[in-house]
Fold this sequence. Notes:
This protein has helices spanning 51-57, 61-64, 70-81, 91-104, 110-113, 120-127, 135-141, 154-168, 170-180, 183-187, 206-222, 228-236, and strands at residues 2-10, 21-30, 33-42, 85-88, 116-119. It is an alpha/beta fold. The chain has a 5-stranded mixed sheet.
Amino acid sequence: MRQIVLDTETTGLDWRNGDRVVEIGCVELLDRSLTGRHFHVYINPERPVSAEAVAIHGLNDEFLADQPVFAAIAADFEAFVRGAELVIHNASFDVGFLDHELGLLSRPLVRELCNDVIDTLQMAREQNPGKRASLDALCERHGIDNARRTLHGALLDAELLAEVYLAMTRGQESLIMALEEDPVAEAGADSVSDERLTLQVLWASDEEVALHDAVLADIAKANKGVCLWRTESAAVT
């Protein structure tokens, strides 16, 4: 199972107002283990970054002016995520921005590229209703060190989210492992026998048959001479 844990940073909060992606960070999980492979780019958004966004991620216009535009990295991004299951915190935000960028280039959208999208924000709210569900809060809840996170950064946040996701779904991993276990293999071949049990047939005695017929006669008498069991018995005979 290949999963990509993904995060983005942007010029603002809404792509509908013209905001753009300025950073993408992805890390790869294969069968729930970090592989060490990652995808990380800074992007020239071709528009100013809002002061509020700079305060969050520290990526200003001067730094981003020398970075490639989205069109230049789109093919590499698609190649990295294609066919994987995406894991994203507040997925509607990141997917909305990425779909906007891909749509501007008439390229396939995220759900066309990927098998599925898991939203860890929704998972966290379902697991702990009413509790804080930010990435920092989840790191604290699951004992994950996020001391390096003085500013938001797509790659660092993806790395932290990967650890959070694995901690949040550890019970699912145990269930999957239990379902995949082969009880025969676990028990060992020597414990499986090809012998078949011999069934012992006990025939009714004459006395028991007579008592049975008497009961059927009583049923027929009470039912205007009709007894289903006598009819079925005659048909079988």
